[in-house]
Amino acid sequence: MAQRRQAAEEQAARLAAAARAADQERRLFELSVGAITPLTVQAQAPQHRVLPRPEPLQREADERLVMQQALSDDFDVESLLETDDSLSFRRPEISQEVLRKLRRGHWSLQAQLDLHGLRTDQAREALGSFVQDCARRGLRCVRVVHGKGHGSPGREPVLKARVRRWLVQKQQVLGFVQARASDGGSGALMVLLQQVD
Known about the structure:
This protein has helices at 2-33, 57-69, 96-104, 120-136, 160-169, and strands at 89-90, 111-114, 141-145, 173-178, 188-193.
């Protein structure tokens, strides 16, 4: 009981000391500043701040990027393909010798994308991402397996022509040729990529 009383007295003494200290601080402030008069509410200047209209800048940038990377099925690739035994493609700045080297396997294969079993939309997205990623990683020679169409209705290749159209539209693609028989033959393309800095 005596301990509780002593603790209560100590607590009361601490509170009283804190109150005296606060009172001294208030008096010191009054002596330093002088008499003060609180502002009335009417004396405050009204703030008319016009907030800027929100603009979705990031979304617009993302949409522009998507449009740049978009691959179209309606792109006419036939006029760009070299008429040889396997319909190859090269950019104007790429020599025919580069395509011959690509066809002979001069560059080692660094990555591969297999599109078997994918629907057209899935294949388009996968191919776009694959090319972008490989170019960013500095890969030079990759293979894209589109299949020969044996599992397709009518045994016609669905992705073969589309993959060529899509690749021509990617700026990172310098050229492509049909793969050698040992690399997939008519069911695959060997693709030469521009390295992105």
